[in-house]
Amino acid sequence: MATPTNIIEELVNREYRYGFVTPVEEEVFPPGLNEDIIRMISAKKNEPEWLLEWRLRAYRYWAKLVEEGAEPRWANVTYPPIDYQAIRYYAAPKRRPKSLDDVDPEIRRTYEKLGIPLEEQERLAGVAVDAVFDSVSVATTFRQKLAELGIIFCSFSEAVQEHPELVRRWLGTVVPYTDNFFAALNSAVFSDGSFVYVPPGVRCPMELSTYFRINASQTGQFERTLIIADEGSYVSYLEGCTAPMRDENQLHAAVVELIALDNATIKYSTVQNWYPGDREGRGGIYNFVTKRGKCLGRNSKISWTQVEVGSAITWKYPSCILIGDNSVGEFYSVAVTNHYQQADTGTKMIHIGKNTRSTIISKGISAGHGQNTYRGMVKIMKGATGARNYSQCDSLLLGDKCGAHTFPYIEVHEPTAQLEHEATTSKISEEQLFYCRQRGLSAEDAVSMIVNGFCKEVLRELPMEFAVEAQKLLGVSLEGSVG
Amino acid sequence: MSTRPLLEIRNLRVRVSGQEILKGITLTVYPGEVHSIMGPNGSGKSTLAQVLAGREVYEIVEGEVLYEGEDLLPMPPEERARRGIFLAFQYPVEIPGVSNLYFLKAAVNTIRKQRGLPELDAMEFLALAREKAKLVELDESLLQRAVNDGFSGGEKKRNEIFQMAMLEPRLAILDETDSGLDIDALRVVAHGINALRHPDRAIVLITHYQRLLNYVTPDVVHVLYDGRIVKSGGKELALELEEKGYGWIAEEVSGSPRS
Q1: pLDDT tens-place string over residues A345-386
Q2: Strand extents, DSSP E, A325-382
Q3: Distance from B240 to chain A by nearest Cα, in Å?
Q4: Which of residues 16-75 of B touch A (CB under 8 A)?
Q5: Is the distance from CB of A408 to CB of A394 less than 8 angstroms?
Q6: How far apart are CA B53 and CA A431, in angstroms?
Q7: Domains in chain B, ordered, with CATH?
Q8: A361 touches chain B (CB under 8 A)
Q9: Does the ipTM surpass 0.85?
Q10: How far is A75 from A290, CA to CA, in rounded Å?
Q11: pTM score, whole prediction
């Protein structure tokens, strides 16, 4: 007779569905990192001198950190030392499309397989997509339609060419290259990413999204995303990520910077499904990402929602710096670790302006040998009168070989601030599973239902087009992981 | 009464953690019947209910169980449920974040699919749920709440009977559904059970006390003692137990009283 443990094993052994490789000819740089490589990247992109200089400053800062052995080790994750000289820092399909219709059929098929149509009239008609393939953006849909409203949505490389003043003004203002080891590395070698500017008073009429795909082997992906919401504007942005199955670990070190001016709102959602490695923990992506938003303006709002199910290791803390009075920061997170996946994720909410408010809802799910850590900081600076935070960190354990860890840091320098913190840890019990099965539900459906119930507060924050996908994804990566 | 039994248990012996709990149960239930299984704590009543529903922690040592003439024991719990076996739990389980309606809709449609019936859409389902909720006077607000989450003891038990009404089982096993109910709640639950009596449906009431049987009249009463059915009879057997306790059964069975 099937025992709950058997069911877990069966389900957990499902294959990663996006593990294929696209046979496309790519131009790749030799492995290794030095100033010449950075100059090559910059030259490839025909960048202005100031940007090359910025990259080089970042590189020198990073090289100094390497020399000092200052690669961060404080996260609750373990991995062998990364050989940064063995990574290729640039890989791009040789054939570059001149227009949307000209996209390489292989690449088009790749995105179709991933459920991301690059045709504008396709099923995701309410979503504009920027498709990033290894180091470059290969297509951006609905640009024309958005441009009519003054919205700029393009690859980072194009933004550098076409809107250098905006890039120069905002690049590095939220995450300076000195911020941390991986942010420094990214600033030196970033190859592409998405750029969004929403002009004053404009409500972006469709979801903007970037789909990141790693294809080439031995290659790192270092993208950079910059979103600026001008006064009174609104934008909802979503990113998705997948990669082929490989035995090697691949590094993905991205930087995302968000800027919200007076009365502007940015909603940023992530469905991260990088290859997580196999059952024994071989391979998978190291997802070391710095994401931060600045609520510069009064009454501005930045809301992060993330569903993290992939990657061998996830290290990311999408954060909000609440500078404008009455500004609002939100962080809704579901992080899943299965097999030998490790996640150390959470947020920082820095309250500087008056009456700033933040909400943190974190749902960690651990299965298999997965280790899941919530790490979060709430900091209330002097003068942030009336600041409020509500934090809720819930952990769900599936099985008895996994772990859940919570590290909440609180720093308050303002006596009028109000903070609340709630935390729970629970397991899917054999009783719950049996109860559901006694009502006719399969074990898979039961686990999926329980997990989705556990994550409901987060999933409902996702744009509707993706909420269903995310629910299914959770089901696939977890269902039955009960012991 | 139909000639073909719905449930036939033959010499069922069951062990858990090395200890034998059921020591040879034989029981036949026909459609339309209401059987009451009574017995002191630890006699194996709940074990029998759980084994019939397919709980996997029990080890079948010997015997067989036929349901609609088919071997029940190899079937996983969901298969049994889809074929019409329903267990009202003694301790209904809480499922935070999953609304009662959402949960039941999934269950109802799974079972309807098995029976070759079309799935109910949201509107049809809601109409049915409202109708059935009235049967056990279940407050409609509980339909929207998470399954059993924060329900009172009485609400949980009513919710079980409500689910039974929604799922329309062929064989309903009610495990101490009366325990922990005050007299009003008991009446409501009993009313629900009576309303669900049907010529095609059999109900097995597992209970420690006789009081539920004041409202639901069983066709047969069995006394389960130390893993065996030691006595069967009509409703009057229940009254006798109420009056004399279980002590006399113990003496009758082994000659030595048991606490």
Answers
A1: 999 999 999 999 999 999 998 888 889 999 999 999 999 999
A2: 328-337, 342-351, 357-367, 371-380
A3: 34
A4: 53-57, 74
A5: no
A6: 13
A7: 7-254 (3.40.50.300)
A8: no
A9: yes
A10: 14
A11: 0.83
